[in-house]
Amino acid sequence: MSSSDAPITQTPEDLVVRFMPPLSHERQRWILETLRRHRARSVLDIGCGEGDLLSVLCKPASTIPNDSSLEPGRDLDLTRVAALDIDPDVIQEAAHAATDERKPHYLAPWGSGEDGWYIRWAQLEVAVWLGRLQEPNPSFHGFDAIVSTEVIEHVPEAVLPAFSDVLLGTYLPRLLLLTTPNYTFNARFHPPGVPRKGFIDPTGQTTRVFRHDDHKREWTVDEFDAWCRQAAEKHGYDYKLGGVGVPTERDPYDRNLGYASQTALFVRRDVHIPTLDRLSLDEPQSAHQLITECTFPSDPRAGHPKSNSEIRSALVYLMNMRGEGELTFSELWSELAMPSGGSMGTLENALMEQGETTEEDTLGEWSIVPPRNPNAHTDPKWDRVVVWKEFQPEPLHSEDQGVGYENEGYDVGEGYQYGSGEEYEGDGDYRWEVANPVHDPVPDSWSAPVAMNAGWGTDSDDPASRWGEGIIDEAAAAAIWGASEPKESTSKH
């Protein structure tokens, strides 16, 4: 390690700077929320690293695409995802993150034995490439959005012009999302007048001290703005700057240093911008190496629900087995997604519309009410409560799985507890209208999923509850849920 690469030792004068949630989560949250808000259908991740963002992009959506009940949707309805990185040491991890089809944390001890949250309701094509960003890849043309998070600061000076020329001028995405460190914020780590700790600018162009030994630049807000303005004007885009990352502790010196990470959203104008001749996409092959590609097919039940009567029967069965006459949509969706064909709108119609025979009247039997005790983490759609007004708890016999009540969970076997359903964060675009409101409006909050270790490192899942196995009437359950084995994904390595 050269003297210029050597980190300066931390001293007791350093200030404590913490982020909650972690800064990497904040960056990912901004990316996912922006993609959701602009309804991106295909995403290219430039500089994907180990694949933390990639793994989230490849997760199945909760419902079928364009489910009218969920506009604007809580999920990304992606049909195509691709990624590129230059580092051969991490590209296999990215390939695994993109193509590893996750399995449920549990199998429900009743009903279909599947978990509706893990079913793919739409086909997804995934590809992971190894190569340099300055070399155009014909496969990358036509993506709805390109994302490059914490990458541009690593790009060598000689390659920097190609960053915008290729990503904007050649691929012409509708959206480009960037994040990069805010150099001004670095002062937050030290008291005024104390020499900064970190890594001296390896290019020698400045006397700045950077956060990482591989950074070729760390821009101030004005410097990043100047670069974005030039790129946007050259390639026909509008752009908007922002930032993420506010420390949990206040600055003891009351300095206004901005966000830890800067963000930039480029949106293509409604004009045709020709690609650059020297970066022509007419080349028959790309210099990039295809590491893996995979197609995840949609489940055959997507968009093919059971009858309203069968859907209601499935819900009655579930509520009886759980011994509860009130369940949130997030609690019941794992079992009701399959008979509903992946559509929450279909489930709502089955509960609230007139029965299919003159003797069957469901209008007075079911109701859907706003979330109980809403807070900043409440999802105003998924945390709505379905109420079965005629519910009467019935004692379960030993052959009915031996489900008993203990504390706040259901004992479904020795060593297992079924706990409450997961919480889902809110979508601030939705508001309730009720005859006698008793709560303040649901506060705005972010509505996209975030990986547990987003940013750098592998993504891991830590379920809040575990389910046991039980004895069920398989014939009855199959008749209600119509379970079938989904097709396996096809991949090439």
UniProtKB/TrEMBL annotation:
SUPFAM superfamilies per record: S-adenosyl-L-methionine-dependent methyltransferases
MF terms (GO), sorted A to Z: metal ion binding; RNA binding; small RNA 2'-O-methyltransferase activity
Protein name as annotated: Small RNA 2'-O-methyltransferase
EC identifiers of the protein: 2.1.1.386
Tree of life domain: Eukaryota
InterPro entries, alphabetized: Hen1 (IPR026610), SAM-dependent_MTases_sf (IPR029063)
Family indicated by similarity: Belongs to the methyltransferase superfamily. HEN1 family.
